[in-house]
């Protein structure tokens, strides 16, 4: 069954992106799952958000209802740049989806997602919101990597904070002829799932070496062996935690080779994006773009007409940030 956007058949009683609630109160709880990142004061609000998430997940089976083959949500969840097809539901806690893109019909990759059977406690961890759904920023990063696969040819590439799927990094591994792709997240359960995804798709990688690894930005001593190893880093919607923002900047700086590039997609989320850019300017040349893809920009403009109750660009539209690592001479003059 082919679905528009990143949706999942209703037969699972759970969709990775969104769920339709049976009351206004339940709708509010459900929207908290895939929109908990709206908080800009993340140190104080992150714990509250996870409590909301926990409560919503516990109610999810009761509130999940659908019409026909799909379920929906009041709030925005996808730009419909990719599509999915259910290929397996044999596992109690996971389901497999094949991701496709109409613009690139030759592309397909199998990704393993959570179902509602997963324990809530498994989701509470180091920046592990990527376990809940594929966020619009990850979708856009994935589309960008697919459309610009030539940028990664013969390069060492690392995805930071890729969550349960590391979808964009897997796409780079499948499509770009990169030399090596490292898929990382700070949560052990995410990395375990990503390792399963790697094994499932290994015949599609060609000569590209693909590995997964747990990587916490605030534990520099545990990834010093990766220092200066990467030409390109990719990252989606990882700028919102005040506590780890400087650690993210430092991690990118550590991993990149001199002159290396980081491609980051994230919404403004109040002042969080600007705060990240301000920190990054110390070590990188920073470029910020709003209109970077004609197809996405058109979809963005169309969504703006629906009003903030459905689509709020502050939390939904991914800004494209490019960081280029300064060499020693540039750092001295910066």
Element layout with pairings:
Layout: E1 2-3, H1 24-35, H2 42-63, E2 83-88, E3 94-100, E4 108-114, H3 136-147, E5 156-160, H4 167-175, E6 180-185, H5 188-201, E7 209-214, E8 230-236, H6 245-255, E9 256-266, H7 272-280, E10 284-289, H8 294-304, H9 313-316, E11 319-325, H10 328-333
Parallel strand pairs: 5-6, 5-8, 6-7, 8-9
Antiparallel strand pairs: 1-2, 2-3, 3-4, 9-11, 10-11
Helix pairs in contact: 1-2, 3-4
How do you describe this structure in short?
The protein has 334 residues and is α/β, with parallel strands linked by helices. Helices cover 33% and strands 21% of the residues.
Description:
The protein is built from ten helices and eleven strands. The protein has helices at 24-35, 42-63, 136-147, 167-175, 188-201, 245-255, 272-280, 294-304, 313-316, 328-333; strands at residues 2-3, 83-88, 94-100, 108-114, 156-160, 180-185, 209-214, 230-236, 256-266, 284-289, 319-325. The strands form two sheets. The chain has a seven-stranded mixed β-sheet, with helices on both faces. A four-stranded antiparallel β-sheet has the order 1-2-3-4. α1 (24-35) packs across α2. The chain is globular. Residues 1-5, 7-42, 52-74 and 118-132 have low confidence and may be disordered.
């Amino acid at each position: 069954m082919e679905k528009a956007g990143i949706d999942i058949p209703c037969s699972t009683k759970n969709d990775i992106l969104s769920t339709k609630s049976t009351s206004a109160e339940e709708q509010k709880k459900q929207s908290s799952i895939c929109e908990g990142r709206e908080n800009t004061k993340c140190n104080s609000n992150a714990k509250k958000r996870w409590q909301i998430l926990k409560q919503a997940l516990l109610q999810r089976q009761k509130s999940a209802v659908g019409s026909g083959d799909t379920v929906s949500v009041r709030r925005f969840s996808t730009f419909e740049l990719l599509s999915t097809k259910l290929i397996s539901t044999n596992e109690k806690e996971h389901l497999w989806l094949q991701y496709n893109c109409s613009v690139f019909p030759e592309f397909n990759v199998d990704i393993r997602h959570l179902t509602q059977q997963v324990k809530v406690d498994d989701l509470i961890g180091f920046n592990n919101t990527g376990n809940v759904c594929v966020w619009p920023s990850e979708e856009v990063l994935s589309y960008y990597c697919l459309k610009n696969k030539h940028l990664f040819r013969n390069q060492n590439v690392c995805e930071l904070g890729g969550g349960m799927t590391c979808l964009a990094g897997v796409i780079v591994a499948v499509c770009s002829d990169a030399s090596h792709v490292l898929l990382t997240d700070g949560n052990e359960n995410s990395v375990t799932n990503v390792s399963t995804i790697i094994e499932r798709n290994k015949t599609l990688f060609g000569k590209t070496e693909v590995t997964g690894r747990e990587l916490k930005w605030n534990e520099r001593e545990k990834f010093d062996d990766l220092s200066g190893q990467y030409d390109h880093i990719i990252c989606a919607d990882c700028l919102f935690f005040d506590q780890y923002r400087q650690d993210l900047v430092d991690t990118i700086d550590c991993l990149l080779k001199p002159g290396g590039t980081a491609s980051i997609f994230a919404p403004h989320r109040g002042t969080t994006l600007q705060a990240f850019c301000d920190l990054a300017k110390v070590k990188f040349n920073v470029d910020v773009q709003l209109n970077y893809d004609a197809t996405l920009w058109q979809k963005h403009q169309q969504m703006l007409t629906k009003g903030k109750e459905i689509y709020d660009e502050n939390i939904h539209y991914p800004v494209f940030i490019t960081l280029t690592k300064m060499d020693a001479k540039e750092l001295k003059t910066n």
